[in-house]
């Protein structure tokens, strides 16, 4: 093979891989998580001041358009359902590839879980790996999250090649290509007009027990402790300011409060912030009869607005975050805020109608 033929061969292989990559992005299952991650990649480089990482308490609790409109805080969530703590390190690395956030926030509810229990259904692992762009960091995330030492003995869908090349997993999604939105994802870079926030108008009555008197600590599982240590080590090495939070929810086990006390001691000892919002129900103004969608595990639109308003004020008090309102760079955030205002008004009316008619949702699983 001469030099000209070699160049042509390399060019053909590069073009083929690029086409396969773009087709894979299009075939990935559509939905809120895909929209959220594609939206992250669509944000202008180095314009996010806060990146929030965590499981399902993140995207329904914190209305990022509201945070912008009321305090000028530019915060974007990298959140997936039942997100395993091991994923947070790689999501943080992914965030720093595209942004220079003044603050990273990590929701820690899932640190109280058992690693093996989170791998009985690998769909939740794929929620992370199959929504990252192809990169070396994605490979590292796959290798860590499919390491046999962390997997439950009953786990299926563990073949690594289907994670490295997830087109093997989603090749049957050909029919979804009739949706224009799927073709838009060929670069995995599509603006999300809700800025990662996902509102709900369901209502389910909850209980909010008071564990403010619990001061004892209880260690989390060794695997989760290791993942927390690795994350904090990386944050220190990168001089990254971080806050670890517990979103307010119907915490029925006193043992979990002890776990959170343990996590709080660990992260504050390393110089990071910690906030357990389970200790501030009244200050936030949460109403267990109106503000949750599934027995207290996640907020609806009513509860999200209250949590967001309280949290954004707390952030402004404790961190030096700029007010980006009025900056033309953030015009899309102003549009997202105006959209949120319209949808929030309609959402609150729907919630009120549900309550008036006694239409309550069936409690779902915590994640």
Structure notes:
The chain has 367 residues and is an alpha/beta fold. The chain has one domain: SGNH hydrolase (Rossmann fold, 3-Layer(aba) Sandwich). Helices cover 47% and strands 7% of the residues. The protein contains 15 helices and five strands. Strands 2-1-3-4-5 form a five-stranded parallel beta sheet. The chain is globular. The chain starts with a helix and ends in a 10-residue tail after the last helix. The model has no long low-confidence stretch (mean pLDDT 93).
Radius of gyration: 21 Å
Which sequence of strands runs across the widest sheet?
A: 2-1-3-4-5
CATH architecture: 3-Layer(aba) Sandwich
| Low-pLDDT residue spans | none
Query: How large is the count of helical segments?
Result: 15
Secondary-structure element string: HHEHHEHEHHHHHHEHEHHH
Label the structural class. Answer: alpha/beta
